[in-house]
Amino acid sequence: MENSGKSHSNGYFALPWFATRVFFVKIGNCVIDNSTPECLTLNHVPLSPDTILEVNGTRCSMDSEGISCILRRDRVDRKSEEATLVSTDSIRGSKCSIKRSLLYPGFSNKNTK
């Protein structure tokens, strides 16, 4: 977290932020071929009116359609059937929850029956 949540000398309360400047997404157990996308667009939408979300200094609100960042394909391993995508966007958010998802839309799981 970027801020401690304590008040500053000006009397304003500092919000605790989750901030990242680089992040990777690894997608595994998928078919790697010429149709594997070069990039993946993530659209971030605040889940409550109290949530503040910024991408590269641009804030979005719950009333907006969200804000996007693009992850570019960084590595592809055909043998292990994994693709790694990376984003270097500066992303900050207040009241963030991070959950692990087992399914990634747009990618097929070859073991799904």
What does this structure look like?
The protein is an all-beta fold and 113 residues long. It is elongated and about 45 Å long. It has strands at 17-20, 23-28, 39-44, 53-55, 58-60, 67-77, 82-87, 91-94. The chain has no helices and eight strands. The protein is 0% helix and 38% strand.
Give a brief description.
This protein has no helices and 8 strands. The protein has 113 residues and is mainly β.
General form: elongated
What fraction strand? 35-45%
The number of distinct helices, counting runs of at least 4 residues, comes to: 0
Computed over alpha carbons, the radius of gyration is 17 Å
**Global mean pLDDT:** 74
Enumerate the spans where pLDDT stays under 50 for 5 or more consecutive residues: 1-13, 100-113
Number of DSSP strands? 8
Major sheet, described briefly? 4 strands, antiparallel
Order of helices and strands: EEEEEEEE
Span of the ends, CA to CA: 41 Å
What topology, given as strand order, has the largest sheet? 1-8-4-5
Structural class: mainly beta
Percent of residues in helices: under 10%
Keywords:
Erythronate-4-phosphate dehydrogenase family protein, single chain, 4-stranded antiparallel sheet, 8 strands, mainly beta, 113 residues, disordered N terminus
SSE arrangement:
Blueprint: E1 17-20, E2 23-28, E3 39-44, E4 53-55, E5 58-60, E6 67-77, E7 82-87, E8 91-94
Antiparallel strand pairs: 1-8, 2-7, 3-6, 4-5, 4-8, 6-7
